[in-house]
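Quick start: what a row looks like.
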Amino acid sequence: MREVVLVLSTAGLLTLTACGGAPAFDSPAQPGALVESRSTPTPSVTPAPEDVVLGSCAADGSGQVAADLTVTNTADEPRSYLVTVSVAGPDGERLTQAHVAAPEIAAGGSAQVRATAPVAGAPAQLTCEVAQIHSF
């Protein structure tokens, strides 16, 4: 048994050496030294409010509210969207927020999506508005 453990340990060390043996994380040479970030930031795109058009918005009998949306990509490259719809009762008090992701939409293209959220005891009259649009 001891020989098996020794052989496996040696094989593991040889594998690390063959792969360069570099540690998973490089630490700075001196405490407090700055470490260069190697990640590339993703460009942020702020979509125009008219890129998302709200259609119907209503509660169903199962405790869900659904908002139908048309999302149009006005950029010159494919984009994906995350949309938040704020849902309020007749008194204007916010009841919930509904969210939806519109997967990659071609430049100049459109997609029909539905944002949904649970809402307990929803009144017959709801007011919905697009609260946030994120594009990437």
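That is the whole record. The mean pLDDT is 76. The helical segments are 2-18.
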